[in-house]
Specification:
Blueprint lengths: L3 H9 L3 H12 L4 H12 L15 H21 L12 H27 L9 H27 L3 H19 L1 H45 L4 H19 L8 H15 L2 E9 L8 H16 L2 E9 L4 E7 L15 H12 L3 E6 L6 E7 L8 H4 L3
Parallel strand pairs: 1-2
Antiparallel strand pairs: 2-3, 3-5, 4-5
Helix pairs in contact: 1-2, 2-3, 4-5, 4-6, 5-6, 5-7, 6-7, 8-9, 9-10, 10-11, 11-12
Amino acid sequence: MAGVAEGLSVHLGAPLWAVRAFFVVTAGMLGAGVLLYLWCWAFMPWAGGEASPTRRAPVAWLLTVASTALVLTFVPLYLDPWAWNIWGGYSAPDAVAAMLLLVTTVAFAMTAGMWAALVDRADPARGIRHALLVRAAVMSLLAVLLVLESSRLASGGGVTQLVRTAIPLVALVAVSSTTLIERWRDLSGERVKRIREEQRAEMAAHLHDSVLQTLALIQNRAGASSEAARLARAQERELRAWLYDGDAPADSDLPTDLRDYAGALELDFPVRIDVVSAGASDERASGEVAAAAREAILNAARHAGGEISVYLEGTAASVDVYVRDRGPGFDPDAVPADRLGVRESIIGRMRRIGGSATIRPGGGGTGTEVHLRYAPGPGRVSSGQGRHG
């Protein structure tokens, strides 16, 4: 279902199967279960979760097939009202049976239409096209019932027949109004998101003028290598990430990954690492470029210390990563042949994916600069995917 039965089960402490059975049984009682379900769905708080990765049962299609079979029973009855001897009010049981048959048919059809529009529409395995097809079929069935009941109302039938005619009409309007319900849900979600963004912006402005400036002052006064500066830098990173970055996806982009990695290194080494990015690329944190960049930053933190600058420049055609430190310098040719850290973890890794890694002295002859460049070929959008292409 749409989460109503599960939510009530958790709230009431009742078994889930019992709650679902209650809705199924009461759905046949003049549609009371359907109305109760829709009321609960409209007013229960939303649990803002992700869409289920598994395919749901085809509830909408099953209800559509059931309502179609019930609608087909009406056609011979109208063609031959004496067939089952339930039309024309021959007895009270016949009238009740006819009304229950109509209500059950309409309830199934209306539930199928609203289920497709409000539940299956958000199912990644189905989507909008499935919802439109089910709603079209359901509205056609309800239109047939409305025409049949209207024809009897035109020939006379009293208040009972007027009620019978109104039942499919109300269901037809309800299914048609699902578009308005979807729009209302979208507007409500946008409104909640906008309110949260405004609150976050107000809090960010306040914290920027107070806490962040205080943390920056502590770092400047204490020096990059002091313990106080490291702790202040770590707190500043966490606070900035919470204020400005929001929730990052599991496989984040390259700049986000390197910022997180730099923050972790600052807790382990007496360094200050600034990560700056420009442009945009499709390079992900799971790629080989990210692994080589992390290794370069780690080497700078381990052997140079002090302040380290990381600059990323991404375009649709390539991505460049520069790692600069202010240490004593580094000569790759002087590294013994049995030391494979830089040679394999950085240079070899970039060469294997078709990129390049250049290590040279920093500006003014102090420090070291590592330049990583990767330009994926056609059909290779990420170094993590390019290895398998």
